[in-house]
Amino acid sequence: MSEDPRQGRSTRAAAWRFLIVGGANTVATTALLIGLSYLMPSWLAYTIAFAAGLIFSTVFAARWVFTRDGSHRAALVYALCYLVIYFVGLLVIAGIRALDWPEYLNGLSVIVTAPLGFVAGRIVFRERQREEPADG
């Protein structure tokens, strides 16, 4: 079986759209995270910024990034994936705090969480291919 060349183009196109939407989301939520990190505990700042980013991402991911009409079920699964990603990010923040690095470095959590978000969206909102009946 040969691989469909459209699949590679589709993944690249989705990656570019994810970079645009995700980039806007990342800039906004990272600024929010850094600003809030000076006003409250880092874990709380991260939680608020992450929630804002999750809302933005859920609204735009299915329809614009992955060009699918996301069902309510898919949106719920996507949000649950992001719950796992949230805890990964909290671990990164805890590591930054344990190293006693400056608050603005909390933004480094994005390096870990952004790729995980793309993979989650790609899996949840992937195009469902119908199985062809076997000739026989």
Automatic annotation (TrEMBL):
It is a multi-pass membrane protein. Residues 17-124 form the GtrA/DPMS transmembrane domain. Keywords: Membrane, Transmembrane, Transmembrane helix. It is found in: Membrane. The keyword Endoplasmic reticulum does not apply. The chain crosses the membrane at residues 16-38, 44-66, 75-98, 104-125. It comes from the Bacteria. Belongs to the GtrA family. PANTHER family: PROPHAGE BACTOPRENOL-LINKED GLUCOSE TRANSLOCASE HOMOLOG. This is GtrA family protein. It comes from Microbacterium terregens. The lineage of its organism: Bacteria, Bacillati, Actinomycetota, Actinomycetes, Micrococcales.
